[in-house]
Automatic annotation (TrEMBL), chain A:
Listed name of the protein: ABC transporter permease
Main location: membrane
Signal peptide stretch: none
Transmembrane region(s): 38-56, 96-116, 122-144, 156-174, 204-229, 250-273
Domain (ABC transmembrane type-1) ranges: 84-273
InterPro entries recorded: MetI-like, MetI-like_sf
Family per record: Belongs to the binding-protein-dependent transport system permease family.
Keywords carried by this UniProt record: Cell membrane, Membrane, Transmembrane, Transmembrane helix, Transport
Subcellular location: Cell membrane
Membrane topology: Multi-pass membrane protein
UniProtKB/TrEMBL annotation, chain B:
Taxonomy of the source species: Bacteria, Bacillati, Actinomycetota, Actinomycetes, Pseudonocardiales
InterPro entries to which the protein is assigned, alphabetical: AAA+_ATPase, ABC_transporter-like_ATP-bd, ABC_transporter-like_CS, ABC_transporter_ATP-bind, P-loop_NTPase
SMART domains membership: AAA (SM00382)
Record carries keyword Nucleotide-binding: yes
Signal peptide: none
Gene3D superfamilies, sorted: P-loop containing nucleotide triphosphate hydrolases
Keywords: ATP-binding, Nucleotide-binding, Transport
Record protein name field: ABC transporter ATP-binding protein
GO molecular function: ATP binding
Record-annotated ABC transporter domain positions: 18-247
Organism: Pseudonocardia yuanmonensis
């Protein structure tokens, strides 16, 4: 679940105004939907996979602990639907709170780092090191720190995971100032603060949104995995681990399926937010 | 050379828009400018022309206080270059329009005023006025990306004019435009310069452009960048708004225009010859 950190080296580079070659890698709210075939192809493929899966399990006689049949999982989803919705709401809530906290923190830290050189030098390695923190290591520690009757530990885990891509992406966006804008603001005798407010921040917004898009699905993963390590037993993750422990494999898979749906929802929401915010723009740093 | 004589005959008693004395500028061991003396009178249109590397852009940037001269004095509207920049005494336009994509056209024009803390209502009023001046009033709410290159450059000029500067600095502003748009923009610029009474210091590669726009064409040569000659331009007298495009057309067909073009061309050749090889 390592957060998708792009261009770790770029984050330590000098805040130069050079238009970077890495623009395409981060930004670019490109055309992701090219009509019906884009939707139909993966749906057909998905159905084919399910059919083959069903055949392998029933005809091949695979034991349920190895792989339950899709029909068995579907039956469990039907039977557990109220519980699934309830637990998904808890996990989704944790992911959302952590995402918002991490997003705000990541953006604020990047702005701070962009404004003050010392802060950047101090912060960048720390944030990048945070990307290497396995939440496996953090979750039990947070649970002990804050107690097992609160949602705080999971939200903190999510926050740590979210801060990194948001910080890296925002910091990069803040460095992508076109030389002509740089010159213009000097010629206009703009203060540093005005320069940040009128040019750097608005210019960085596509990058900020890219950071959010990358962080959103990671937030769900973090929220679920954090539940595997104790604390309250009210989310999808804890249901998956307890069902598996009780040899209720089909039920475990039902909650896995719900986790996938939740992750997709966050991913799509992030994508939508990015496209809405950047729709008026000709793109990244051109 | 003829620098002083021409400046004297200009006969403006008010403060000169630009006064450069003995300006040198070196980048490491490269002498970009050497011994430049130049005066631009109030309301005067002066073009800087010369091959690449002759320092014409550097000279403009020195006036704009984007570069500091190594030696020599720079006065802009009677202030030091730095004071003039801080007081927004000049407006500047670059080869790239450099509009902020996320702002509307009107908000782009307002930018210099916003930087100087002018209130919102006053800013908007001024932006509307300026967009009318450059003929883009109906695009006030558009995004820069919706505009053509020529239109974007007109917005950039409107932006440069926002603080009502007495001096307009332009670094090849029409360099990226096609020939037809370019000629239309030249007429536009002459009309705007006439209406606002602003002096213009204009960097260009194009000899006809320099001649048709300018009161004086300053010819420069490279290594080190210096002024080799100053030729009288053929800036048409400004009458009512609509007359300007025709007046510009007329100028382009006169013998005097061709004479001036030839004079500039020869001055450029001479500059290249004394340097040993063409730039």
């Amino acid at each position: 679940m390592s957060a998708p950190v792009e261009g770790t080296t770029a984050a330590t580079a000098a805040p130069a105004a050079t238009a970077a070659g890495g623009v395409g890698a981060v930004a670019g709210p490109g055309r992701r939907f090219r009509g019906a075939s884009v939707v139909i192809a993966p749906v057909v493929f998905g159905i084919a996979v399910l059919v083959v899966w069903q055949l392998v399990v029933t005809v091949g006689g695979l034991p349920a602990f190895l792989l339950p049949a899709p029909t068995a999982i579907a039956a469990q989803i039907g039977a557990q639907l109220p519980v699934i919705l309830e637990t998904a709401a808890v996990t989704g809530g944790n992911a959302l709170v952590g995402l918002v906290l991490g997003f705000v923190l990541g953006v604020l830290l990047a702005i701070l780092a962009a404004g003050v050189r010392v802060v950047s030098d101090l912060l960048t390695p720390v944030v990048l090191a945070a990307s290497a923190i396995p939440i496996v290591a953090l979750a039990p520690v947070f649970t002990t720190m804050f107690g097992s009757t609160t949602e705080i530990p999971r939200r903190l885990v999510v926050m740590v995971v979210v801060v990194v891509p948001v910080y890296v992406s925002t910091a990069r966006g803040l460095r992508q100032v076109r030389p002509v804008h740089d010159e213009l603001m000097v010629a206009l005798a703009a203060t540093r603060r005005q320069y940040t407010r009128f040019v750097r921040l608005p210019g960085a917004i596509p990058y900020v949104m890219t950071g959010l898009r990358l962080a959103a699905p990671a937030a769900v993963i973090a929220a679920i995995v954090a539940e595997y390590f104790g604390g309250l037993q009210n989310g999808l993750g804890s249901r998956i681990s307890s069902a598996a422990a009780n040899t209720a494999y089909a039920r475990a898979w039902a909650f896995v399926a719900a986790s996938i749906v939740l992750g997709l929802l966050f991913f799509l929401a992030g994508l939508l937010a990015e496209r809405l915010v950047t729709r008026n723009r000709p793109g990244g740093g051109s | 050379m003829s620098t002083e004589a021409t400046a004297e005959t200009n006969g403006t008693h008010g403060t000169q828009a630009v006064e450069l004395q003995g300006v040198d500028k070196s980048f490491g061991s490269v002498r970009a400018l050497s011994g430049v003396d130049l005066t631009v009178g109030a309301g005067e249109f002066v073009s800087l022309i010369g091959p690449s590397g002759c320092g014409k852009s550097t000279l403009l940037r020195v006036v704009a206080d984007l570069e500091e001269p190594t030696t020599g004095t720079v006065a802009v509207t009677g202030l030091t270059a730095r004071q003039a920049r801080l007081a927004q005494r000049y407006g500047i336009a670059f080869q790239q329009a450099g509009l902020l994509d996320w702002r509307t056209v009107a908000e782009n024009v307002e930018l210099p005023l916003q930087v100087h803390g002018v209130g919102k209502a006053e800013r908007r009023r001024r932006a509307v006025e300026l967009l009318e001046l450059v003929g883009l009033a109906e695009f006030a709410g558009s995004r820069p990306a919706e505009l053509s290159g020529g239109m974007q450059q007109r917005v950039a000029i409107a932006r440069a004019l926002a603080p009502s500067p007495r001096l307009l600095l332009m670094d090849e502003p029409f360099g990226a435009l096609d020939e037809m748009t370019r000629e239309r923009m030249q007429a536009e610029l002459l009309r705007i310069a006439g209406e606002t009474g602003a002096a213009v210091l204009f960097v260009t590669h194009s000899i006809p452009e320099a001649v048709v726009l300018s009161d004086r064409v300053v010819v420069m040569s490279p290594r080190p960048g210096r002024i080799t000659e100053i030729v009288s331009g053929r800036r048409p007298p400004v009458a009512g708004d609509d007359l300007v495009p025709d007046a510009v057309e007329d100028v382009r067909e006169t013998g005097a225009f061709f004479e001036a073009v030839t004079a500039v061309r020869e001055a450029l050749r001479k500059g290249a010859a004394t340097e040993g090889h063409a730039g």
